Amino acid sequence: MGTARLAVMGVMIVAMAFFFIFMITRLTGSNMDLLYADLEPSDQNAITAQLTSRNIPFEIDGNRLLVPAPQVGSLRMAMAAEGLPLGGVAGYEIFDNASSLGTTNFMQNVQLVRALEGELAKTIRSIEVVKSARVHLVMSRRQLFTRDKQSATASVILKMRGAATLAGEQIAAIQHLVASAIPELDPSRVSIVDNKGKLLATGNEKDS
Fold first, then answer.
1. For the Flagellar M-ring N-terminal domain, which residue ranges apply (predicted)?
2. Domains, the chain, with CATH or none
3. Residue in 99, 132, 121 with CA at minimum distance from that of residue 178
4. CA angle centred on 149, ends 144 and 150, rounded to 5°
5. CA-CA distance, 120 to 181, in Å (whole number)?
């Protein structure tokens, strides 16, 4: 009988321990709130590194990054001060760790185009309904063995927030924004596509 009582007590102790662990986990989880969702992997790594350096507890729940609820607002401001999230693109910071030694003119031009693409993408991301953006540029250049010159073109790929859409004037604004940053690029040569494959601007010269 003594052994049976000890066994029952042991089971009760284990059950109580699991109960307390469950309650603590539940209470802790309920105090966590959404900081960001659907981050690019590079952004998530950078932000979690910032949180770790600040000794801020965090949880990753699928595509959601959770932090203590009372700190959500201050952490978003702190991350913004660090330039995060970037949306997975690099702008002029691409030159921060770049060395000019041994770098050819061709590579410098490639880096400049990549930096322009990144800066334009970050600017487009500032539009409220745009979640992320990618910009691809083709600079104007003269064809070999001919006087003809290839016109500059640009394509913009947008990921919208939820079911949000862009108004016609916003589409035109993006075209003019990109064109104004690139020499000899006409706004009508800027094509825009959303993440669902919908063509928002064709990028043909005939477009107004």
1. 29-201
2. 2-81 (3.30.70), 92-201 (3.30.300.30)
3. 121
4. 100
5. 8
Angle (CA) 30 34 39, round 5°? 145
- Rounded Cα–Cα distance for residues 50 and 76 (Å): 11
- 78-111 pLDDT, tens digit each: 876 676 776 655 555 445 555 555 556 766 777 7
Cis peptide before 57 (omega within 30 of 0): no
For the whole model, what pTM was predicted?
Answer: 0.53
User: Which residue has 């001919």 as its token pair?
Assistant: 146
Give residue 103's identity as a one-letter amino acid code: T
- The pLDDT tens digits for 15-59 are 676 666 555 555 544 588 888 777 778 888 989 999 999 999 999
